[in-house]
Amino acid sequence: MSSAEEVDDLVEEVEYAWPDLQVDVDEDGIAKLVVNRPDALNALNAEVVGQLRAAIEELALDDAVRAIVVTGSGEKAFVAGADIAEMSEYDALEARSFSHFGQDMLSAIEACPKLVVAMIQGYALGGGLELALACHLRVASTSAQLGLPEVGLGLIPGFGGTQRLLRIAGPSVAREWILTGDQFPASEALRVGVVNRVVEPEALWDEVRGLALKVASRGPVAVQAALETIRRGLEVGQSEGESLEADSFGMMFSTRDMKEGVQAFLEKRKPEFEGH
User: Fold this and answer.
1) What is the percentage of the chain residues whose pLDDT exceeds 70?
2) In angstroms, rounded to a whole number, what is the distance separating the alpha carbons of residues 127 and 147?
3) Residue 15 pLDDT
């Protein structure tokens, strides 16, 4: 049996089952993780938050998965926010616990050793935008509307939005988006750096899949190290961040992937990375 056939068989054997999620892994190892609550515009309740964390952690351990795409069901919404009806029943302690629960799930996405791309169509509001901000890259369709409208409900973002938007787009943008609660078109999100790319709706999946495949074709150990070094670097000063970078850079020289990459470059051929 060829290696390609073995991968196909492995993909077919693995079945993921979460009530509010759909997971499909294609022949190239790109996992599509879909929040499937279209009647609620894919809103995040406590059950969905738990399912998302479990799904990300399992996909991270699946050798057949090379990259993960997170999106929502239907064309109306990526994720329209948290489940307001559920939250309306919380007291202060329950709300704090729910905030930590959501933050932990998004931290698991951010710390995933494989590329996670948010594919944003329609509304990405509140918890939906916070979900997208935790992903490593974000691609939006021209139909997307993004925002953190919590102040209109007498709230603030609770799933890390005040912190991630600040780090991604800067304090000025974070203040405007959070304090006004306005919705912004994809073009504005691109201008301020909240998303990486914007394409027409019909081209969205091809754009996202092509991006995921490009990263998946790179050295997997190097991709993982780069993701981790960037993530940890955001939490420390530049000097400590550069020390982390030097440690990771040196570690690469002990990997077979680095030796293969350099040899392939010298021999003018495509590298065959093994992830070691």
Assistant:
1) 94
2) 9
3) 59
- Which amino acid type is present at position 170? G
List the strands of the sheet with 183-185, edge to edge: 77-79, 123-125, 145-147, 183-185
Residue 274 pLDDT: 79
77 Cβ contact partners less than 8 Å away, ≥ 6 residues apart: 38, 41, 42, 121, 122, 123, 124, 128
The whole-angstrom separation of Cα 226 and Cα 20 is 32
Spatial separation of the C-alpha atoms in residues 113 and 127, rounded to whole Å = 22
- Residue 10 to residues 3, 6, 25, 67, 268, Cα–Cα distance (Å): 11, 6, 10, 16, 32
Q: Distance between CA 131 and CA 118 in Å, rounded? A: 8
pLDDT tens digit string along 108-117? 999 999 999 9
pTM: 0.91
Query: Comparing 16 with 42, which gets the higher pLDDT?
Result: 42
Sorted by where each starts, the structural domains of the chain and their CATH numbers stand as 3-216 (3.90.226.10), 220-266 (1.10.12)
Q: What is the C-alpha separation between 231 and 209, in angstroms, rounded?
A: 23
Cross-strand pairs, 30: 67
| Residues taking part in catalysis | 130, 150
Q: Given a cut of 50, is residue 270 above it in pLDDT? A: yes
